[in-house]
Design brief:
- Helix content is 23%, strand content 27%.
- It is of the alpha/beta class.
- Strands 1, 4, 5, 6, 8, 9, 10, 11 and 12 form a 9-stranded mixed sheet that branches. A two-stranded antiparallel ribbon has the order 2-3.
- It starts with a strand and ends with a helix.
Length: 217
C-alpha cells in the first residue's frame, strides 16, 4: 500500500515559525515532524510515499530527497504557490497513488499510532482514526457506532488526520481547490465511512504553544 503525507499548508497559526520553515520540517524531539511519519510508514512496510508541496515546498524536497534515507521512495505532487486544500491536494496526487487504497497522514500531527494497523473494509470508501477531543476542539468532528462513522451522535470525537482512503471516494471531483470534509459526509450518507478510536499519544501541532509543549514533553 502506498501512502500520502499532506505537507502543502502554509502553517499560518504557527507563524512566525513557519515564515521561513514549512511546518512539516519543524523539529520535534530530535527530528523533523514529517520524519516521524516517514519512519513509521517504513516500519509499517510502506515503500512508496507521495508528499504534496506548496508553501516553501522546495525545502521539503531538498531535505527529504528521494526518501532513500528512510528506506522509501518519495514522489512529490507540486501544487504551485497556492495549496489546493486537503481534498484538492489528494485528488491532484491520485495518479501517483495508483488504483488501490492508500494511507493518508496529515503532516502536522504527532502521534505514536502505528499505521500498520490501518485497514479499510472492502465495502468502505475510507477508514478514519478518531481521537478524544483536544482542548482546542471540544465539539469534535464525528460520532462512531460499531465501527461506522456518523455525522451526528454522542459521544463525538476528533478526526486525527490518519486514514485509509480509496480513490473511489473522489468520484466526480475535478482538479482544483476543495476540502475533504464534503466527501467524508457523502461517504457517511452511503454508510461507507468506517473508523476507530485511538486513545494513545496524539497532538495537532497547530500553534507555537502546542509545539513548545510537545518539545518539552
Amino acid at each position: 500500500m502506498k501512502a500520502m503525507i499532506l505537507a502543502a499548508g502554509r502553517g499560518e497559526r504557527l507563524r512566525p515559525l513557519t515564515l521561513a520553515t514549512p511546518k512539516p520540517l519543524l523539529e520535534v524531539r530530535g527530528r523533523p515532524l514529517i520524519g516521524w511519519h516517514l519512519a513509521a510508514l517504513a516500519r509499517a512496510g510502506v515503500r512508496e510515499v507521495v508528499i504534496n508541496l506548496s508553501w516553501l515546498g522546495e525545502q521539503i524536497r531538498n531535505t527529504l530527497g528521494d526518501g532513500a534515507a528512510y528506506g522509501l521512495r518519495i514522489a512529490y505532487s507540486d501544487e504551485g504557490p497556492e495549496p489546493l486544500e486537503t481534498g484538492g491536494g489528494i485528488f491532484r496526487a491520485l495518479p501517483l497513488l495508483g488504483p488501490g487504497p492508500f494511507l493518508l497522514v496529515n503532516g502536522d500531527v504527532y502521534t505514536d499510532y502505528q499505521p500498520a494497523r490501518l485497514r479499510a473494509a472492502p465495502e468502505a470508501l475510507g477508514h478514519l482514526v478518531l481521537v478524544p477531543n483536544p482542548p482546542q476542539h471540544p465539539r469534535g468532528d464525528f460520532a462512531l457506532d460499531a465501527g461506522r462513522i456518523l455525522e451526528d451522535g454522542e459521544p463525538r470525537y476528533t478526526y486525527s488526520g490518519l486514514a485509509v482512503l480509496r480513490p473511489e471516494l473522489f468520484a466526480g471531483c475535478s482538479d482544483g481547490r476543495f476540502p475533504l470534509l464534503p466527501l467524508f459526509k457523502r461517504a457517511i450518507a452511503l454508510g461507507r465511512l468506517h473508523g476507530e478510536l485511538y486513545t494513545g499519544a496524539w497532538t495537532d501541532v497547530g500553534t507555537p504553544e502546542r509545539l513548545a509543549a510537545l518539545r518539552g514533553g
